[in-house]
Design brief:
mainly alpha; 5 helical Cullin repeat like; Ribosomal Protein S5, domain 2; 2 domains; 13 helices; elongated
């Protein structure tokens, strides 16, 4: 091919048929590659991204080595990639090409960046580079930003990120590809977590100096409302065992940031309870809603959803939904 390229460059317009052949063959190869793995894509987004990248890698090498990465050949190659990546059997089946492609790419990022991924940093960095190759061909990058931002937020709040370095690397690459404004909310989320860690350290030092008694292992994250894709929680009464610590923290925070207002996101809050009446003793990891209900049983043997003993103000949540969240069998927890 390189010899052929050297010959045809001597003749006017002789390269155009070759460029068209390159475009058509790249497109057909890409479509075939995606068709061969389309049945597995919903469960394994990784297969979709890697199939695309393999085709891209193969033909980019041809463009670079055989055709010296000349603009006409590069344009033909990019046109083919843009077509088969955004419009194929997988995206057509979903009914929205841009949304499905963006969702699959974001899901693959989520899998790669979550805890449980045993790959080393060099492997992860390599895969991030591959993801960015595919990202550059997405037609509607705002759709990807929405999916990615939601998944990033959950990873950060639930402390499921495998590596801060990898998270920062993706954000920096998105900023380089699309500009500061595109990545600003993602960057702000990442910064909020770091600032929260520093703030928590200051709060614990403050409590130590003032000799305040607070909950062991208390932690908090302060999230900027404009950057995070979360909605406020319904009204809910914190258990009295937690309220003093929260009040102390609120006072401390307001002393440093006057004019701001804190709202709790109970749906992401969690804690641990120790069961003292069993042998051996158990530690339960529960949501704040579950904690509030379980602590009621320190005073009563039974509660009703709308009764006086239900003092935590979560009437809108049913016992069935709370027990389902905890994976408790329905027959063990029935509303009265």
């Amino acid at each position: 091919l390189r010899i052929l390229h050297g010959l045809v460059t001597r003749f006017k317009d002789a390269e155009k048929p070759i460029q068209k052949k390159l475009e058509n063959y790249t497109y057909k190869t890409g479509i075939h590659a995606i068709n061969s793995i389309k049945a597995t894509v919903s469960k394994e987004p990784k297969n979709y991204v890697e199939a695309i990248f393999k085709v891209h890698e193969r033909f980019y090498k041809i463009v670079k080595d055989a055709f010296c990465d000349e603009p006409g050949y590069r344009a033909a190659f990019d046109n083919a990639c843009g077509k088969f990546i955004n419009d194929n059997a997988v995206t057509k089946a979903a009914g929205s090409s841009s949304a499905k492609l963006a969702e699959l790419l974001a899901k693959y990022c989520d899998t790669l960046l979550r805890k449980g991924n045993k790959a080393d940093q060099s492997y992860t960095d390599k895969k991030i580079d591959q993801i960015m190759v595919v990202f550059n061909y997405i037609h509607d990058k705002d759709v990807f930003q929405k999916f990615y931002g939601t998944m990033l937020a959950k990873r950060l709040v639930q402390q499921l990120s495998a590596s801060d370095d990898s998270e920062a690397l993706v954000i920096s690459k998105l900023r380089k590809a699309c500009g500061f404004e595109y990545s600003s909310k993602l960057q702000r989320m990442f910064q909020d977590i770091r600032i929260s860690t520093q703030l928590l350290g200051k709060f614990k030092t403050y409590c130590g100096i003032e000799k305040y008694d607070v909950i062991n292992d208390f932690s908090v994250m302060i999230l900027n409302k404009n950057a995070w894709p979360f909605r406020s929680s319904p009204a809910f009464n914190l258990p009295h065992q937690i309220q003093p610590t929260y009040t102390r923290f609120t006072e401390f925070y307001m002393s440093q940031h006057s004019g701001r207002k804190l709202k709790l996101l109970h749906q992401f809050s969690k804690g641990e309870l120790q069961m003292l009446y069993t042998e051996p003793k158990y530690t339960l990891q529960v949501s704040t809603y579950q904690m509030a209900i379980l602590l009621l049983f320190n005073k009563v043997e039974s509660i009703t959803v709308n009764g006086e003993s239900m003092t935590v103000n979560i009437k809108s949540m049913t016992v069935e939904s709370i027990s389902k969240e905890a994976q408790i069998k329905p027959e063990l927890c029935r509303p009265i």
